[in-house]
Amino acid sequence: MAVLEVEGLRVVRDGVLAVDDVSFQLAAESDTALVGPNGAGKSSLVGAILGLIPRQAGEVRILGHRLGPAGQLPAQVRAQLAFLPQALPLQGRLPLTVAEFVGFGWDPPGPRLPWSGGGARRSAVRSALAKTGCGPLAGRLLSELSGGQLKRVLLAFCVVRPRRLLVLDEAQAGLDAPSTEQFHSLLFDLRRSEGWTVLQVSHDLDMVRRSCDQVLCLNRQLRCSGRPELALSRAQLERLYDPADVPGPPGRRAPQGSPRIR
Ligand SMILES: Nc1ncnc2c1ncn2[C@@H]1O[C@H](COP(=O)(O)OP(=O)(O)OP(=O)(O)O)[C@@H](O)[C@H]1O
């Protein structure tokens, strides 16, 4: 069974058709990159898949369960998802230590007795911090972390209990080259050891070529998909990032910020 199935997805934001009739599936334990120019609808697609943004048409099934119109999923399915956004806006606003924050990742969705699972929770947090090299950060406040440390802590949050689907929206944004490399190598290792299925929005085509199994090329519609060596061929990229190729109603802004095509 596919971990994620998307069929005929359509998302309109502020009157702009952001995602148009997109269909694809993610096989278990695959690593898929979602690429495309700025404004191509990548974050809108990911937001709709997670039920964070309403969809106007289409079906999303996660682990065989249909996502409700307002993003509803059974709690046991939600418990198996994790999302790493570009930034964590709460970082400087919550006086939480790293260990306390990672503990929230262990808590199952729904009400829970405050004293239940204490020992198991503590040991899961310790193990998650160790797996991600965050042990020395356990007592630090989130607000004291550098961008690279915070990204590792977010991976600890994901790995603190078993999950099936991990969605990342430019999770490496703002990191320098060595930190980006470290983040991706940790993600790659954890994906293998934890059996995660990964969907990651990225502008880093070199990383996508090196580590992903499948690529979805989006410019409002799915323009092509397949293994990186085919989907990221020079000809496909020139079509995907062609500034003249701006689908949609008049007034839709032209995508910009194309990566260097090699
Ligand atoms: N919060 C919002 N409200 C209304 N429209 C939005 C919002 N966010 C994005 N849009 C519009 O939706 C369309 C798709 O944007 P989206 O952010 O999904 O693209 P993207 O491919 O993720 O871009 P980027 O690579 O720049 O992050 C764009 O036309 C954008 O202006």
Automatic annotation (TrEMBL):
<dbReference type="InterPro" id="IPR050153">
    <property type="entry name" value="Metal_Ion_Import_ABC"/>
</dbReference>
<keyword id="KW-0067">ATP-binding</keyword>
<keyword id="KW-0547">Nucleotide-binding</keyword>
<dbReference type="InterPro" id="IPR003593">
    <property type="entry name" value="AAA+_ATPase"/>
</dbReference>
<dbReference type="InterPro" id="IPR003439">
    <property type="entry name" value="ABC_transporter-like_ATP-bd"/>
</dbReference>
<protein>
    <submittedName>
        <fullName>Metal ABC transporter ATP-binding protein</fullName>
    </submittedName>
</protein>
<feature type="region of interest" description="Disordered">
    <location>
        <begin position="241"/>
        <end position="262"/>
    </location>
</feature>
<dbReference type="GO" id="GO:0005524">
    <property type="term" value="F:ATP binding"/>
</dbReference>
<keyword id="KW-0813">Transport</keyword>
<comment type="similarity">
    <text>Belongs to the ABC transporter superfamily.</text>
</comment>
<dbReference type="Pfam" id="PF00005">
    <property type="entry name" value="ABC_tran"/>
</dbReference>
<feature type="domain" description="ABC transporter">
    <location>
        <begin position="4"/>
        <end position="244"/>
    </location>
</feature>
<dbReference type="InterPro" id="IPR027417">
    <property type="entry name" value="P-loop_NTPase"/>
</dbReference>
